Amino acid sequence: MPSEPPSPSISDFVESNRLMPPGTPFPGLVDLSLTPYAREWMDNMAPYSGIQHQAILKAAQVAATFAIENIIGYWMKELPAAIMYMSGSRELLEEWGTKRLEPMIDSMGIRDLIISQAEQTFSKSSRRTGDKMYSKQFIGGFLKLVSAQAAASQRSDSIRVLIRDETDSAPAELKTGEGDYMTVSAARTKFFGERKKITDLSTPTTYDQSVIFPLYENGDRREYRVPCPLCGKYQPLYWLPEEGNFGLRADTTAGMIISAYYLCDYCHDAIFDTKKRDMFNAGKWEPTAESESKPFRSYQINSLYSPPGTVSWLNYYNEWKVSKGKPEKMRGFTNLYGGWPFREQGFRPKAEKILELRGTYKAGTVPSGVLFLTIGADVQSGKVKHSEITESEIKEFLADPKNNPDELPRIEMEILGVGAGYRTWSIDYKVFYGRVDNAYSGAWEKIYKWAEDTNMEFYRADGFMFYPKLMFFDSGDGNLRSVVYQFTGRGWSACYPIKGQGEMKRQKNEKVIGDEISELDALQFRHNTIGDQVLYTIATNYYKRHIYNNLNTKRINARVQNPGFCDFPREYGKAGPYENYFKMLTAEEQLLNQTFHAGSRRNEALDCRVYSLCASDVWLRSNVAQLRREYVSKGATKKEAEKFTTATFLAALIVQTKNQEYYKNDLN
Ligand SMILES: [Zn+2]
After folding, report:
1. Which end of the chain, N or C, is less packed with Cβ atoms under 10 Å?
2. How far is the centre of ligand 1, averaged over its atoms, from the C-alpha of 270 (Å)?
3. CA of residue 501 to ligand 1 center, whole Å
4. Which residues, 6 or more positions from 415, have their beta carbon under 8 angstroms from its beta carbon?
5. How far is CA 323 from each of CA 72, 253, 301, 315, 580, rounded to the nearest angstrom?
6. Burial class (CB in 10 A: 0-12, 13-18, 19+), 73
7. DSSP annotation of 405
C-alpha cells in the first residue's frame, strides 16, 4: 500500500508517472497539452472531486479511452480500490484488455503491484468458452474486466470505480427491460455512496438505440469552448461543415480539396488547425444545461478536437465530403467524427415497401421456380415465469387480448423455398407456443405432431411434392442444444442445432463443407462436431446483409422475377398469424459497421430467414462436394470433378423438379 497520500489530480499524476513506449503515437512522458480537454474527465474521477458520475458522448480519436486507462492506473497505484471496467461487447473487452490495459500497466509501472497473474492472463489457454471475465488482484483492491453480457451474471462484489466503455455496442437485448446491464452494474456501486466514481463513455449509435445519449441529455451537456486565435472569442467547434456562416470549410482547386479551415463564429476569419494546440490549451469545458443531479456531469466532443497528428481538419472535411448525401455513410460520419447519434432514416427496409413483394400464391403451397425447401426455426424461451406453462394455460393466456404473446415460450419457423439465381419464396411461417425445454412436450411436441399430420409434404399446383431437405434450429447459448438433439433423435434425420455469431473469420487452414467451392476469407458458416453431435455456427451478419440486399430487388411485371427476388405468400402482413411478419423481417437496423441491431423490436422472422437461407447453402454445398467425391472415386481427376459446380447441380434440380419452363431464360 502506498504510504504517501494519493495525488490530488489524476492528470498531474499521469503526466509525471506514465511513460508512453516507442511505437505509440506520442512516445515519451504523457503530454496532456495535446488533449487538455481530457484533464477534466480524469480529475472528476479523483477521490477529492465531488463528481460521482460522468457520461462522455464522443467521436473517435479524442483521448477518452486514454483518459479512462489513466483513471484505472491511478486507482490501482495511488489508492487501491475495487475497480470494474466493463465493455459493451466481449470482442471489444478482449481488445481493450490486450491492446490498452496491459500496455498501460507497464507504462505506469504497476506490473509489480499485481499479485497473481497466473490464471488471469489473456493467453489462449485461459480463455473460457462462455462469458469472459478477467481480473487483476493487487493489495487493497482488484480490477475486474467484464462484458455487458456478463454484467448480470456476475457475483455482486461492491465496486467503487466503475468504467463503462462503448456502452452503445452492447447487444440490444441487454439495453432495456428488467435486467438491463447499466442498471445492474450501477447497483454495485451503491455501497460506496458519495465516494463512488462512474465514467460512462461511448461512440453513439442512433437516437433509438443509444445508451450514452440519454445519459448525456440528463447531464449538464458540457461543450469544449476554445478561443479564436484572431479575435479571442470563445466558441465550441461545431461538428457539421458548411453550415451557417461559421464552421469547417475547404478550398478546392480543380476538384481537389487542398486545405480545410474553420470560420470563426464571431470575426468570420479562417482558423487553421496548426493553431489547435494553442486553442485547446486555452479552452474550457462549459455546461450548456442543468444536470439532473449535481454530482453528475456529461460531455460531448467531436473529432475536430483530435490531437495534432491524428485526425486533421482536412481528413475530417474529406470524410464529410464523401459521406454527404449518402445516408449509410453519413451515419458513420455522424457517429465516429461528429460524436452524435444518428437519426434513423431508411437503414432498414421499410416494412410497407416489402409488402409490395408479396405475391399471389397461398401460404403452404409451392410456387413454380422453387427447387428445394429448407427450414429455419428460432427457439424463444419467453419469460421465465412461463417456462413450464401448460397447454391450457397457453390457451387462457392467448385468449386475453391484454396479454403479449411474445412473453410465451415458443418456436417460430419459416419454411423456405429456394430457386436458382438466389430467388427465394417464403412457403409458410409458423409459431408453435409451448415450453421449449423438453423435446417431448410443449412446442417441440407440437412440431412433431404437425410433421406427423402433414408428413412434411408441400405441394405445387401440378401436384409435384417437396419436403424440406435440411432444418436448422437455433440453440441459443447452447442450453437448448441437447433438447434439439433429443428432438432429432425422434426420427428427424436432417435437423441440426445452430448458433448465431455476428462475423466469422476463417482460422488458419480451416476447412468447412464445400471448401473446394468457396475460398472466401470470411466464413458463412462453420460445422463443428462435438462428440457425435454436429453444430452449425452461422455468420448472421453475412446472411442479414444478403437478405437486406435482396429485399431491394423489385417485383417486375412478369411471371418470372429477377435473380435475388424474395417472394412472399399473399397472406403475409395481413391480419392473423402473419400480421407482423414484414415488421419482424425488417426489424433490425443495419449499422455502418455492418452489424445489426434489433433494438426492442421483434426480429424472429429475420432470424428464421437467416437460418433457412444458411441451411440452403449448407445443403447445396454438401451435395456438390459429395458428387465431386463420387466422380473422383470413379476415376475422374480432381480437376475434372471441379467442373461440377453449384450451377451444374442447380441445373440438374431444375430438370428434376420440372422447372425448365420457369428457368428457360436463365438457362440460355
Ligand atoms: Zn474570431
Report:
1. C
2. 8
3. 52
4. 373, 374, 375, 426, 427, 428, 429, 430, 458, 468, 612
5. 36, 20, 20, 12, 34
6. buried
7. G
**Are the C-beta atoms of residues 38 and 130 closer than 8 Å to each other?**
no
Query: What per-residue confidence (pLDDT) applies to 125?
Result: 42
147-203 pLDDT, tens digit per residue, is 888 876 666 789 999 999 999 998 877 776 656 888 889 989 999 999 999 999 999
**Contact by Cβ (8 Å): 146, 133:** yes
The answer to whether the CB of 296 falls within 8 A of the CB of 51 is yes
Ligand 1 mean position, distance from CA 246 (Å) = 10
Tell me how far the alpha carbon of residue 268 lies from the centroid of ligand 1, in angstroms: 6
Instruction: Return the ∠ at Cα 46 (arms to 37 and 11), rounded to 5°.
Output: 40
Q: 285 C-alpha vs ligand 1 centroid, how far in Å?
A: 19
CA of 66 to the centre of ligand 1 (A): 31
Q: How far apart are CA 359 and CA 351, in angstroms?
A: 15
- Rounded to whole angstroms, the Cα distance separating 470 from 449 reads 18
469-to-272, 493, 613 alpha-carbon distances in Å = 65, 10, 12
List Cα–Cα distances, 17 to 47, 78, 99, 119, 163, in angstroms.
Answer: 18, 11, 19, 28, 21
Measure 272 CA to ligand 1 centroid, in angstroms: 12
Residue 592 CA to residue 219 CA, distance in Å, equals 28
Long-range contacts of 447-453 (CB under 8 A, 24+ apart): 447/377, 447/411, 447/413, 447/487, 448/487, 448/490, 451/492
The Å distance, Cα 256 to ligand 1 centre, comes to 27
C-alpha 264 to ligand 1 mean position (Å): 5
How far does residue 271's CA lie from ligand 1's centre (Å)? 8
Q: How far is the CA of 263 from the centre of ligand 1 (A)?
A: 8
Q: Say yes or no to pLDDT of 334 above 90.
A: yes
How far is residue 307 CA from its own chain's centroid? 29
Q: Which residues contact 233 (CB under 8 A, 6 or more apart)?
A: 227, 264, 265, 266, 267
Please give the single-letter amino acid code of residue 36.
Answer: P
State how far the alpha carbon of 232 is from the alpha carbons of 89, 282, 284, 311, 480, in Å. Answer: 43, 10, 13, 24, 65
pLDDT at 668: 56
C-alpha distances in Å from residue 126, one per residue of 111, 129, 506, 528: 19, 10, 22, 21
Please answer whether residues 280 and 305 qualify as being in contact, where contact means their C-beta atoms are separated by less than 8 angstroms. Answer: yes
Of the candidates 283, 339, 341, 272, the residue with the CA atom closest to the CA atom of residue 312: 272
Residues 6+ positions from 352 with CB-CB distance below 8 Å: none
- In angstroms, rounded to a whole number, what is the distance separating the alpha carbons of residues 542 and 523? 9
Number of neighbours of residue 564 by Cβ within 10 angstroms: 15
Cβ neighbours of residue 79 under 8 Å, at least 6 residues apart? 2, 6, 47
Q: Which 8-state DSSP code applies to residue 539?
A: E
What is the 262 CA–ligand 1 centroid distance (Å)?
Answer: 10
pLDDT digits (tens, 9 = 90+) for 447-498: 999 999 999 999 999 999 999 999 999 987 667 888 888 888 787 778 899 9
Three-class HEC string of 587-618: CCEECCCCCEECCCCCCHHHHHHHHHHHHHHH
What is the distance between the alpha carbons of residues 354 and 606, in angstroms, rounded to a whole number? 13
From 514, 500, 494, 490, select the one nearest 622 (Cα to Cα): 514
Q: Residue 40 C-alpha to ligand 1 middle, in angstroms?
A: 25
Distance CA 655, CA 651 (A): 7
Task: Characterize the bridge pairing of strands 533-539 and 525-530.
Answer: antiparallel
Q: Angle, to 10 degrees, between the axis of helix 10-17 and the axis of helix 64-77? A: 90
CA distance 653 to 659: 8
Q: CA dist 218 to 213, 222, 291, 576, Å?
A: 9, 11, 6, 42
